[in-house]
Amino acid sequence: MSSMNSTSSPVSVFLLLCFPGIQSWQHWLSIPLALLFIVALAANLTLIITLYSEPSLHEPMYYFLGLLALLDLVLCTATVPKILGIFWFDWTVISPTACFLQMYVMNCFLAMESSTFLLMAYDRYVAICHPLRYPSLITSGFVTKAAGFIVGRNTLLTLPVPVLAALLHYCSREVIAHCICTNVAVTTLACSDRTINSIYQLAIGWTLLGSDLMLIIISYGFILRAVLRLQTEGVAAKAFSTCSSHLILIAFFYSILLVLIFTNKLQKQIPPDIPILLNVLHHLVPPTLNPIVYGVKTKEIKHGILKLCGLSKMATEKH
Description:
GO terms for molecular function: G protein-coupled receptor activity; olfactory receptor activity. This is Olfactory receptor 56A4-like. It is built from 14 helices and three strands. It is mainly α. The protein has a single domain (24-88, 101-169, 192-318), classed as Up-down Bundle (Rhopdopsin 7-helix transmembrane proteins). The protein has a three-stranded mixed β-sheet with strand order 2-1-3. Helix 3 packs parallel to helix 6 (140-158), helix 4 (96-129) runs parallel beside helix 9 and helix 10 (235-265) packs antiparallel against helix 12 (285-297). The radius of gyration is 22 Å and the shape is globular.
């Protein structure tokens, strides 16, 4: 009877194993991860402060960048400090409440980031395909309503993911073979049936991220058709230039996500550390790249950063 009670009693904590195949040298992996984390924090904070302090950047298209930077900051701080704590101090213990909260933040804010990319694609579509209507369509009011819709939709639709996971019965296994509390990694430990949870996770993932990606592709299809019709020399190149940074980041965001889904489906054919590493990088590399790419590719933001750092006069004198 005591044996049965010990196996059926609910677990009080989870243990994050992180990289099971490379635990002997995973502390070396913490160095590039810590550097990327510092760069991501510094770059996104700099971008947000620049957008806030520079009046010339108080326009709808830059509001989307500010929203993206804010989402990136949350994604970074929700996952990376815990991972570094595991690497440096062996802080593998995480309470169920903290674990399910992290699961919710990851699902919710990744979905919000995907929706923000969709809004930015729509912004470029209107700017290139309907330039005369842009000032009347893309207004501050539109940005406020769109941001509210993004927050409301993704907050409500992703909430059942951790709730369904928390309702499962965890009776004996407590070691999560991952660095972060992903839905799949956690619910595989459950003693009860997780079918409903798995179906909802799959459905909501394809509904939110899948629909965003399809609408982004459609938007850029219209943009490409409009650009190819332009006969004026240099106009097409300028139009492509305004979209290049956005396309780079979209391609990186969704390509890592698709590779991550593909590797999770082939877990038996590939080392288990690969999908774990990809998941960690998906929460760290895009937040690092997003502000850097826009800072380098967007002249107005670059000038605003130089002005913020007191280097604008120096840059002007060199020119």
